[in-house]
Design goal:
The complex is a heterodimer of chains A (800) and B (339). By secondary structure, chain A is of the alpha+beta class. Chain A has six domains: 74 residues, Phenylalanyl-tRNA Synthetase, Chain B, domain 1; 115 residues, Beta Barrel (OB fold (Dihydrolipoamide Acetyltransferase, E2P)), CATH 2.40.50; 205 residues, Phenylalanyl-trna Synthetase, Chain B, domain 3 (Phenylalanyl-tRNA Synthetase, Chain B, domain 3), CATH 3.50.40.10; 63 residues, Phenylalanyl-tRNA Synthetase, Chain B, domain 1 (2-Layer Sandwich); 199 residues, BirA Bifunctional Protein, domain 2 (2-Layer Sandwich), CATH 3.30.930; 88 residues, Ferrodoxin-fold anticodon-binding domain (Alpha-Beta Plaits, 2-Layer Sandwich). The longest helix of chain A has 19 residues. Helix content of chain B is 42%, strand content 19%. In chain B, the strands form two sheets. Chain B has a seven-stranded mixed β-sheet, sandwiched between helices. In chain B, strands 2-3 form a two-stranded antiparallel ribbon. Chain B starts with a helix and ends with a helix. The model of chain B has no long low-confidence stretch (mean pLDDT 91). The chains are: A alpha+beta (800), B alpha+beta (339). Chains A and B meet through helix 8, helix 11, helix 13, helix 14 and strand 27 of A and helix 5, strand 1, strand 2, strand 4 and strand 5 of B.
Amino acid sequence: MKASIEWLKEYTDINVSNKELAEILTMTGSKVEEIQEKGTDIKNVVVGKILEINKHPDADKLVVTKVNVGNEILQIVTGADNIKVGDIVPIAKNGSELPGGIQIKTGKLRGVESCGMMCSVGELGLSILDYPEQIEHGIMILPKEYELKLGKDIVEILQLKEEIIEFEITPNRPDCLSVEGLGREVAVSLGENYKNPRKNIDEKKTNLKTDIEGLKVDILAPDLCYRYVARAVKNVKIESSPEWLKRRLKACGMRAINNIVDITNYVMLEMGQPMHAFDINSIAGKHIKVRRATDGEKITTLDEQERTLNRENLVIADNEKAVAIAGVMGGLNSEIERNTNTVVFESAVFKGSSVRLTAKEIGLRTEASARYEKGLSPENAMRAINRAVELVTLLNAGEEIEGAIDVYPSKQEKKEIEFIPERINNLLGISLSKKEMEDILTKLDIEVKNGIAIPPYYRMDIEGEADLAEEILRIYGYDKLESTLISAETTLGGKNKEQKLEDALRKLLVNKGFSEIYTYGMLNEKELIKSNIESELLQQAVVLKKPLSEDYTMMRVSTIPSIMQTVAFNYAKKNQDVALFEIGRIYRDEKGSIEKNELPIEESILSISNYGENVDFYTIKGIVENILEVAHVKRYELSSKVERTSYHPGRVAKINVGNDTVAILGEISPIVTNNYNIGTRVYFAEIYVEKLAKYGKADSKYTEIAKFPAEERDIAIVVDELVEVGNIEKIISKKCKKILERVKLFDVYRSEKLGEGKKSVAYSLIFRSNEKTLSDEEISKTMETIVSDLKKELGAELRK
Amino acid sequence: MKEEIANIEKNALEEIKNAKDANSLNEARVKYLGKKGELTTILRGMGTIAQEERPKIGEMVNRVRDNLEEKIVEAEKNIKNKELLEKLTKEKIDVTMPSKKQELGSIHPITKVIDEVKEIFIGLGYKIAEGPEIEFAEYNFDKLNTPAGHPARDIQDTMYITDDILLRSQTSTMQARVMENTKPPIKIICPGTVYRSDSVDATHSPVFHQIEGLVVDRHITMSDLKGTLKVFAQTYLGEDTKIRFRPHHFPFTEPSAEMDVSCFVCKGKGCNVCKGEGWIEILGCGMVHPNVLENCNINSKEYTGFAFGFGVERIAMAKHGIDDMRLLFENDVRFLKQF
């Protein structure tokens, strides 16, 4: 909300600088966004009269003029062609300044001295829109009457000096979307008196009538319209408004149209009550009906756009048609025109949320709807309409018709709030006396009696004790609040197991060279398909009801697509050796929860991705093993039986604890990397963090260090190529877990001699017992068992 | 005889001392201590020595032999070390060649902010609470004093899944969740991902992060809120940080405030980051609205509380001088490695 200092001064004295005012108001809750001081950048530009215009001796396009600037006659050379002798024009004299830091000095133009410059509208920093009679690329021609003001400062003459403050008004304070409301805030913030310039209006008794000039009003949707007041003026003369009014409208960012429309806007800016004006003759049957629109009902609004409405929208209608969209914009069919004689003013209060939704639906947010949507006080409506009629009289724009129609189905109740100073002190941690608090409340127009506080009608936001506390504190001063520390029961802070695990995983991965990334949990179906995500998983995706863009239509069921996008981004930037990780969520509607109005599953996934020189499956496998160590997950099994189409079918594994998969790792399918234009192999792992936390258990007890000597034996066997070494190891250790300390693969060898589809695998086995020194015999026997088991289960032969 | 032995010792020590390498040392050993060595010969000839002299001579020979042996070992060691040193000199390497260090990774600036904030509040006795990102509108709005029809609930600002389920637009959801399930005293910090219907640009992202704080107990005051946030700001941004509370409005707190901190870039002098104001707005806070307490089954006559919340990205950007939010989510390793 913008307001000029000049206008605010109508409500209270302001004896501080603009900067101080801004600071004080910011600290009482009306945050100042900007202070504009217009006209301060124009210096030494005066009113002049052109006395002569002569040809320039050396230039066809220039003329040499003589200009009377009051106390002297100046010679000025100009290229303008819209001037004639006798014109009154703005003259920037030698040593003057114009907006944008431009300085004008005496100089020669093609050899002829020019002692200044004639100014255009633009050169004075003004908009042609505010001076429609002027031409854009030409000298500004001032009205003839300024001939009496030759030599006077143009800033003064055109009243260009304007100090405007722009406030950020929080949505709970629609009363401050008016100069009157801001005036009250300024007065109370500065500790000055509030001079109520609308006292006459507040004390006015209005005769209520059921009809005016045959006009009737009915509210057919009282749930959406709380009050509707109508008054009329006759013998209206539509013309342009006086300068002072236009100027104030402009200061608040509105453009003048004609006196009647300007009055409605002026009252809205002044008192915060949006108004509307109709031509009484455009209301069929002279019957105003406030009703819901019918589905598909059409109206062309003042901006000449046709709007289609539905039954949730409220309209102002007559017997035949809608004449306005309530609280948003009037209809073209009831517009005030040159020949309008009798004008009906509307001052109504509609339900905020209804106006807001209507404005959103039809995509038309106006000054009026922006006020309505915050919830206005119905009590203001009568004051506002009386002010509008008063202005009509003041402006000599028409004649007042006595009386008002007031349909007021739901009267605004006065709120009574228990006022217990002690509780307010306790809530805020201050110690104000009852008297001090009452003084503040009284200044804010809040009536206090018998321990009850009654807010004024325009403060509908004050509903309870906490609101009173805020009012007291903001006037007393937020900056006077002390800084104390909670004096209460000591609480034990800290992280839970999973949070600690996440920290440990981050630390590990950073030490291993991985950089943490953050990607979006939202994506579109295309990305999932690009990453070859299984269709069963795809069907579990949680879909947004109304996506903002095509890029983000659903929640991810896998982290692969978003991380592959990042990998692709880095690959395209030619970043080499990229190692990334993310702890982020996936979202799966596994059981049709959404439909049952239950929340879907959210799982925390540690995703790891890696490409570069010397990176292969076993690199990522090593990292995953490190992760399992850090998480203290000890009993797990790795298997290649994984059906995840995002991965290379021959290079993927899962890690299970029992039947529960805690991690998937592998090479991303080249089909997928091709889709992302990545020309290298990418390795990936997905680790389920919650499961890791669940299965991880740090040993609290130490294991005795072996006392007895170890025996080492080697074994080399020949097996089919497809036999996994993991399986061989399982069989080796199956029957001798107690004494087999370690199995270490040290060679895998293929040759023609072994035959096609065969490989030789060699292990070194370390035996040790906790109870005794193992005898040669015992170990040999064990070795025999191992060999025979391998033969039996895998068809393995000892290599000779 | 004694003289002879003494002479042998003297000569032998001389030769040991002068031995330049293992060979010459060995020669000396053989010459004096070998089977036919000078000292051995004397021992062998003990029979020719008078009976009463024998013990003394024997003792003397043994002493000399021990001494020579010891000196030989010592000399051997010296020679070896000298040879080794010569060899080592030839092994000189270029220490300025590149190392074999393993590259370190990096922690994302978003995590850095969250971690630092967590640590400060854990130190103050707060627990960390986390919750769902896909949330009931009830927790995101209704329970937080933002009833149906409130502008904040608009589909333009909030991403809905159904009419009742949405992507949480604020971590304040955790206020309601925790209050509903926990008896005061409550002291929590809730970091998390939130979603708003914003298009991606230099200062907006539809996905971003917030940290929420909540304290509920008997006798909690707004001064406590200010004191707590002052400790936080001074720990996080530096001891000389000043804070400023300004009145503001949030549906779920009353009284509400916005907190500014003295600009941590220019120290309040005025710069780009603070737009010349010397203050940076960093968070919103206030006393938990009595309606919110009651909505979560906490007696507002008995308990009071405060809450605060702020955006992680904005702080990370201000702290590291990052001028485009997209950098945080593009994850270019050249960017990431700077942290």
